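Researcher: Let's try something more involved. This one mixes different molecule types, so please make sure each is placed in the same coordinate frame as the others.
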Amino acid sequence: MALGKRLSRVFVRIVTIICGTVLLGCGTDDASDEGLRTIKIGAIFDLTGATSDVGVDYADGVRGYVDWVNAQGGIAGHTIDLFYQDYAYQVDRAEQLYSQFVQEGAVVFMGWGTGDTEALRLRITEDQIPFSSASLSHVLGDAVESPYNFLVATTYSDQFKIVLRWISEDYQARGGTGAPQVALMHNASPFGMSPWVYGGEAYAAEIGVVVTRYEMSRGATDFTAEFTRIRQAGAEYVVFQNTSAPVSVAIRSARSLGIDATFVCLNWCANALLMRLVGEDAEGLVGAMPYAPLTADVPGVQPLRDYLEERGESYTERTNAYTQGWYTFSIFAEGLRRVIDAGQDLTGHNIKIALESIRDLDMAGVTIPITFTATDHRGSKGLRLFQVENGTWTPLTDFLTAP
Amino acid sequence: MDTFLQLTVSGLSTGMIYALAAVGFVVIYKASDVINFAQGDLLLFGTYLIFFSIVQLNLPWTVGIMLTLLIAVAMGLLIERVVLRPLIGEPIISMIMVTIGLSSVLRALANALWGPQPRTFPSFLPDGVISIGTAVVGFDRVLAIPLGLALLVLLGFFFRRTRDGIAMRAIADDQQAALSMGISIPRVFAIAWALAAVTAAIGGMMLGNIVGVSQSVAAIGLRVFPVVILGGLDSIGGAVLGGVIIGLLEVYTGGYIGHGLNLIVPYFVLIIMLMVRPYGLFGKPIIERV
Amino acid sequence: MTMECGVFHTTYTSDIALRRVPAERLRLGLFVIVVITFPFLASPYWLNLANQIAIATVGAIGLNILVGYTGQISLGQGAFMAVGAYTAGLLTLNFGLPWGASIVFACLVTSAIGTFFGMPSLRLKGLYLAIATLAAQEIIEWVITHWTGVTGGTEALVVPAPQLFGVRMNTDFRFYWLVVILASATALFTANLFRSRIGRAFLAVRDQDVAASVIGVNVFRYKLLAFATSSFFVGLAGALIAYYRNIVSWERFTLETSLFYLAMIIVGGLGSIRGSFFGAALITLLPALITNAGRMLQDSAPAIASQLPNIQQASFGLIIILFLVFEPKGLSKLWQNVKDYFYVWPFAYRRGEGRH
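Model: All components are placed in one shared frame. Result:
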C-alpha cells in the first residue's frame, strides 16, 4: 500500500503544519493592550443546528446592532469587538467557545439556547460574566440562582399565562360556557415543557382553564393522532410552544383534518417564517410576540429597517428573532454605557450592577419597558398579541403584562 | 370507529412515506451489503433539489422532477465512486462509519447551498383533502400510497426481470460466483446507488410537500431502521409492509395512548424483531448466529 | 509488530512487559513529564480542552474495548454515558453519597445496563448488533427524558463538584489531576486486560468467533463481559462529565455523542489504547482548530470565514471519510509509521523488507 504510506506521510506533515500555525495563532490575545477603547463581547449562535431557522435571524440582529452602533461611534466612545461562532446547538462546543472567548477578554457573553445557558450557568457566576440568553425559561431569570443571567424577553411561562388569560376572556366574549378547553402542543424538551412547568399549570387551575399537553416528537411528519385526541377533547384553542417548522406541519395536519380551533403561537413560532411555511392556512393565527416584527408600525423598528435597506436587504423576510437579537444587545449596551459613564472599570461585576439599575428602559414600542432588579433578572413581563390578517401579522391587542 | 378510521388512514399514508424512505436503503443493502446511514440526507437532498428546480430555477414541474432525478443519479454515482469503492472489502464498522461521515458532509453541503431557513415550494400536487368515510387525509399524503406501490412493482420487476437487477441479486448472493460469471461489481454497485438516490429523491419530493423543505427531513432517516429490520433488510416488499406497520403502530399509539410513546414504539418493535426474527418478515435468513 | 534488533528477553516478565525496549520507556517517560508539567504552563482555555480530552479518552478506551478489541459494534455510547452521569449525579444529590462512592456505583450500574443491552449479541452480529444498540440509545434517551420522578425529566441536574481531602475540585487545574489519574488508570487496566487470558479471549471473539468457541472460549460469556467492562469505563466517563460540568442534561448524550466516540476510535485506530487517546484528542480539538483557522482567515478570505459553520460540520464527516479511505487503521498506524521512519532512518527501508 505504497500510496497509503506516502499519503500518510503527507497527511502527517499537513496536520503538523496546521496544528503548528494554529497553536501559534491562538492563546496569545489577552485582555490587555487595546482594552481601553474596545469592548470585547463573546457570542455563540446556532447557524447550522437544530434551531438555526430562527438562530440565523437572531445572530444577524445582534451583529446588525454591533455594526450599527460602531458606525455611530460606539458606546460612549468605545467600539464593540464581537467574537462570535456557530456552535450548532452542541453544548460541548458552546463550553469550548465560552472558555476561549472569556480567555480572550470578553466581558459579556451572548448565549442562545436552553442547553448552553444551563450548562454555562455556574461557570458564568464564577467567572462573573453577564450572560444573555435567547432561551426564555423562567428559572434562568432567577437572580438568586443565576446572578449573572439576564433575560430580556418575556419568559415562556409568562407568555403562556398571558395567553391563557386572553383565551379565557376571548372564550367568554364568544359566549362560551363552562371552562375553556385548551391543548398545549409542545416540543419534547425543557424548552417545550417550560411554559407549563414554571407556573402555567398553576395559573390554568387558578383561572379555570383546562389544559391538556401533547408532546410533538422530533421529525414527526404527521400529527393526526394528536389532533384526533384534541378534537375528541373538544379543545377550541391550541397553543404551540415549538419552532416554526414542526408547527407548520401541525397546522397543515390540523387544517386538513378540518379542526376548527384557534391556534396561538408562543414567541418562537409566532413569526414571518411560520406564515411563509403555512401559507393560506395561517389566516386567523394568533401570535404572542414579546418583540415586534419588523413589519409592525412602531418607532423602534425604524433603525432596523433603515439598516437593512442600506445593505440592500428586504426586511419583510426577517422574523422577529432579528428584532430580538438587535434589542437584546442594545440592552446590554445600555448596561455598558452606564458603567463607562460612571467612570468605572468594565468588569463583569460592574456591568451586572449597572444592568440591575435599569428601570423602565424605553424600548420605542418594540417591547414593554425593561426593568431589572437585583433579585429579578426577567426584564420584560409583557407582550403584544398579533393576528394574521390578509397575510400579515397585525396587532390584536396592546401590551399585556403577565399576571 | 371514526377515530379508528381516521387514524388508520393517516397511519397508512405516513407508513407509505416511511416505506419510500426505506426502499432506497434496501436497494443499497441488497446490492452491496452496505448500511447507508446517509439515507435521510439523500432524502434531504431530494427535497432541496426539487425546491431548487421549481423555485430557484423556475422550471415547470415535470422538467423540475426530471432534473432532480438526473442530479440524484449523478450524486449516487459520485458517492459510490468516491466514497464507497475504496472501501470494498473493509469490515462492516468502516462501512457504517463512512456513511455516517457522508451524512455529516451532505448535511453541511445542503446548509451551505441553501441555508438553514425552512422553505416551501408551490405544491405541484393538487391541494385539498380526500374523504374516506368520515376520515379525511390530505391529498398529497395519500398520493404516497399509490406511489409506494408503483415503486414496489417497478423495483420488483427490475430485480426479477432485468439483467442488472438479477446481477445485483447474484452479487448479494455470492460475490465470487458472480465475478466468475463476468458480472462487473463496480458497475452494479454504481447502479444500486444511483437507484437508491433516485428513490430517495422521489421520497424527498413527497416529504418536501408535506413537512416543508428543511433540515428536519433528514430526521426521517433514523425512522427507517425499525422499518427495514421489521421488513427484512434485503426485501423491498418487506420495506413497504414494514413501513405501513410502523406507521400504523405509531399513529395508534399516539392516538390511544399518547405520552410521546409513539416515538419509542418503533424501537421496541425493532428490538423484539431482532430477538425473535432478526432477518425480518421477508428477509433471507442468513444472519450469522454465534 | 516489528522485531527489535539486539534486544533479548530472558524472563517472561520482560517479554510481556508493556514497554519492552529502552526507547519505548524513554518516550513514555517524556510523555509523563509533559502531562505533569502541562497544567502549570497552560492557559485555562487549554486546561479546559485537556480535561475534555482526558474524559473523552476514558470513554474512547471503553468503547474501544467493545468495538476495537471484541469486534462488537455499539451505537449506544451516548446513552451509557448518560446512565453513568445521571446515576452519579442522582446519588450525590439525593443520597448525599461522597463522590468516590457515587462514581463507583455509577460505573457498576452502567456496567449492568450495558450487559443487559449486550444480550442481543448472543444472536446478532455486526450490523444487526449495531442497530440493536441504536435502539438502546433511543430507548434509554426516552426513559431519561420521561422518567421525571427520578431523573427530573428534561430538566438539567445540578451536581456539586467533588471534594478531595477537603479541596473542592471546581477549577480546571484541580480537576485535571483527578481526570488524568483516572485516565491513566483506565489505560493501564486496559493494557493489562489485553495481556491477560480474558483479553485474549476478547480478541479471539473478534477475529474468529467460531474458531474461538472450538478451542473452548465461551463466546457469549466473553461478549457479555466485554459489554460489561466497556460500559464500566463508559459510565466512568459519563460520571466524570457530571462532576466536571456540574450540570447534567440529556442533550449532552444523544446519538450524535455516540457517533462522535465512534469517530474517535475509528480515526484513532481500532483496538489501540494510544489510538483512543489520539482519536479523542483530534475529534475534541477539531472544532477548536477550525474556529481558530477561520478567525485567522477572516481578513484574508472572508468568503471562507462566512461558510465556517458549514465547514465545521462537514469537517467531522470529511475526517472520518478521509481516514477510512486513506488510512483505515487510524492515527495509531500513522504514529507507527512515524516511529518506523525514524527507526530505519537514514535508510528508507530495512533489509529484507523491500519497496512496497
